[in-house]
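hey all, quick one before standup. I had two proteins in the batch that finished overnight and I want to keep them in one place so we stop losing track of which output belongs to which input. First protein below, input sequence then structure tokens straight from the run.
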Amino acid sequence: MAKLNGWKRIGIIASVIWTLGAGAYTYDSETEGASLRISEAYLSCGSAAKAPLTVTPPPGYTLESPSKAPDFFPDPGTVPMPPGAVPADADCHKQAEDSLALAVKNARLDASLVALVPVLLGWLFTYLVLFLVRWVKRGFMQARGV
């Protein structure tokens, strides 16, 4: 194993701290933000599904009293679901679960990119600067004839 000088050791420690800290922070903030958006969408979906059902009578029909209402006008909210239909709450719940799964997948990718790309670019930039400094230094040494 190659010997590491003090600066490389500091760089490795800083890289590990950045990777863990930035990755965890990004993942947490992404999932929290997605959860809030999904919760709001779920609540609005649920409230829209529970909105009272209004039934309008056919044109020309007048209702003299509520006790004489014909059977073909169901009470609001008691309309039977057609066969094979999914209740609105179940549909909202399924959409929320699918959205959360997608958000967590995207949060993992974002956290990985935020954690690893700056570390990679930082090491590449550092070694590029060191190479250039040494190259320029060699040029001055050759000019002096050393």
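OK second protein, same deal, sequence then tokens:
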Amino acid sequence: MKKFQILFIYVLLFLLNFFISCKLDNPNTNKLSSHFVPIKNYHKQNEFLELPKWFVEKPEISDVNFCYAYGAIYYDKKNEKQNLLVSAAVNIEKSKKIEITVIQSAHHQTGKLLAKTKIKESDVEIDESRIEQDYTIVKQFKLKKGILALVAENSQFVNIRSELFSSKIVIIDIQNPPEWVHTPPDEKGYIFGVGIAQDHSSPQNAWLEAEKNARADIAKQVNMKILNQGSDSQKQMWEWMKYNHQAISSVLLENVFIIKHGYCKTDRTYYALARMKEK
């Protein structure tokens, strides 16, 4: 009986050793090597970003003013929708008419002139009690921590079906900024502004900041045109303010629409392109 037990142990050890050898020799069952295979592909995929086509470039439909809305993801879908509609209402009102004050200041520090720009937009009024009657969410796209939406006013969106809008996802290269950042469009009758924002707490907040900066860029261009056409005393005042390292310009803008968005992973920067029709 004792000999049988010893023989059984030897057979068991032999089978265990044979099984371990097969596992190590077979590359298909090597868990360690298979674990590291996807890493190269993962970095390659991260060179691109997937965004809906309607967010990369705003759809153009006659007599319909679209705007973008941003919101957080809620368990309560009613609150989620309400927040998106409020965001949309604010952005639509800003696109119609907004006064932008740009304060450019600078000071000397260690022999260098350090510049700073502060942008203030006038407040807009919305009626939250009518928000669902006044605005329609056309498309939505979920990010990891938030939602992007394309929204239109109900009064303009009558008889236009949401199915007409593509849900196509665009894969964009994010190693470099979009071409329009360095070379904005040049189209007769329009002024274009480029807005840039560094990485924020969320992509939604960063794109909102970039949109504000794009409107401010148009405001500065309009202000320079006004100054160039103004009296000598206005120009002298502007030069005096610049000499004293502070310049304040306040401009009323109408019908300014955000038409494109972009992102560059290399410097973690978000971009927006605004367009305004010249009067």
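Flagging for whoever picks this up: The longest helix spans residues 203-229. The first strand starts at residue 48 and ends at 52.
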